[in-house]
Every structure is written in C-alpha cells, then in structure tokens.
Please model this.
Amino acid sequence: MPRRRTDDAVHVVMTDHLIARRPPTGDLLAEKPERAETAESSYRGEVVPYYPAKISSTADDQLTLAVAQVREQSNLKAGLPLLASQIARHHPSEPGYYAELAEGYLAVGDAATAIQSFEEASRLDPDSAPRLIQWGDALMQAGQWADAEIKLRRATELAPGDPRAWGRLGWALWQQDKAAEAKSALEKAIGLDAEVPELYNNLGLILWGTGDRSAAEKQFRAALRIQPGISEWRLNLGRALAAQGQLAEARFQMEESLRLKPENVQARVDYARVLTDSNRPADAEKQAKLAVETDPSSAPGHEIWGALLATKGDLSGARRELLEAVRLQPGNWPAQVEVGIVLARQGDRTGAIQHLTVAVQGPDPNARAAAEQALRSLTSK
Model:
C-alpha cells in the first residue's frame, strides 16, 4: 500500500489502499503544483444535464436548465436570452427565476434590464427583504441612489436584523451626501455583524469624506484585519496615513496595494505623491511613469509626472505631460495651474494666461489661489 500525494489537496499525503495489478511508478511523494480556478481557466460553455442525460420538456425542467446557464456565469451569452425566453413563455410565479435573470444581466453590466427583472421578482414576493436588497443593489449600480434608498429602507423595515440591508442603505445615503444618516446606518450594520469587512471600509470612506482622518484610519484597519488582501482597501489606509503625516507606513500600505494589484493606477499615482512628500523624486517619477504606461488615459498620472519633470527642470517633458493631463481632464485644476506655470517659464505668456485663467474660474480653492498668484506675477512684469 504505497503512500502518495492526493490530487485535490496537493499538500496532503495518504496511504493508497487500491489493489492494482501493476505497482505505480514514479515518485509518488513528489510535490504537485497547486491548481486554482480563475476567470480565465474556469469552464465557459453550455451547461448540460448529467443525470438524467435528457430532461423532460416540463416548464420547471426547462426553466431550471435555463437558470443553470446563468447561475455560475459560465454561459451568459446564450443563457440570458434562453432564460428570458423561457420566462416569457411560461410566466412562472416563483420570483427566483426573475432574480436569477436579473443577476445575470448585472453580471454583463446591463443594470437597466436587471432592474426590470428585480422589480418583477419583488412584485411576486413583496415582503422579501433579500429581493429588495438585490433590487437596491441594481439601482445603485445604475446610479439611481434615491430609488435605491427607498427599496433599502423598506428592506430594513422587513428585516431590521439584516446587516446587509443597513450596510447597503448607508452607502446609498452617503452617495446623496446624507453623511450623518449614512454613518448611523453603517454603524448599525456593524453592530449586527462585526465580521463583514466592507462595512468597515465603507464607514471609513464616509469618515474620510467628512474630514475625520484618524477615525477613517481605524475603520480601514478594521476592514483589513478581516480581509487583508484587497488592494483598494490598502490604498485607502495609505491615503489616511499620508494625510496624517505617517509617510513611512503610508508607503508600505501603498506598496502592498500595488503588490496585490499591479495594475491599480490610482495606487501608483498616490504612491508617487507620497514618495514626492518623502523627498524621493526619482522613485516618485518612476511610479508616475509606470502609471501612465499602465493607463495612458490617466490624467492624474500625466499630471504628477509632468509636475515631477518640471521640478527637475525638464520643461519640455513637463509641458507634454501636463497638456495631456488637461486634454484628458479639463477639470483637473492643479494641472491647469502647473501647465500655466511651465508655459510661463518657457516664455509662452499667452498660453500661460489661458490655462491660469481656466484655473481661476474653477471650483478648487487651492488651485484658484495659486493661479491668481501666478497671474499677478505675469501681469506685473
């Protein structure tokens, strides 16, 4: 009875009791590679019956087979129209079919059609908090925050002990600038279930948005204690730390954010800013350049790279990057100021005044003050 590694748990060794005519060959204890299913490696295609191999033509069986095509998102392209047609044909009274169809539409980014299906599911089951939460999720994905609030408030009335309802309601309220109510709803959700990490992260974002950096930091840390592998949450904590002058740990958190998700362009931009504040301009420029190479449409990436090039005296490169930043995002007011100053240094007085005037007319008070000062300097000469 040889000992060998198992196929499903590759770090486990077992005694094989199989009686074989020929003994197994090779190194049975050699390490096996771990296999993890990813979006790229998972099965994509038709879901077919296993047993019985052919199902009946009853409405329930046909609907069930159609649901199978969309439930694990393995056959959405063919499965969504199939499920929609089966629902239209049989008009089932069970709300779950409509909810499954709606979830499938959400998976392909069609929130508008998903909302219609969730509405039908809730019509058939009006007192179901889970249905209302799903409907609220779809409305939030579509940016219909006020409608989402209505559905989610009803969900909290039907299921006052459901932390999902309170958590979603808090986020819908925050998107409508109802900070106090949003904070209260999220605190209620955390009180109901203290092990849901996104509740802490969302509460941290609300506190950050209201200017309470220290309290936001605590919430971001709480989220990461439960689920440490989320790049965006690491970035949130890094920002909170940087805002409080804790640059060393802020750099660490942003490095972790990028380790977890190298394509996180916003993390690279923010990391470049923290490196600049840490007096490491060469490292900052490297990160800014990587941000632009990763996403050439990142206006903040072009802006920070341009500002760093201007600082080291590369006015031509700075002009190139800053002009690209304002082309991509005309409302990037700091970039409008920076390109105006660079153009003035190059002797392009007309161009400088044009960009500085845009910044003066913008809503950013810091950019406006800097632009006004630069304009005074230009016009006094």
In short: The beta strands are 3-5, 13-15. Residues 117 and 349 are 58 Å apart (CA to CA).
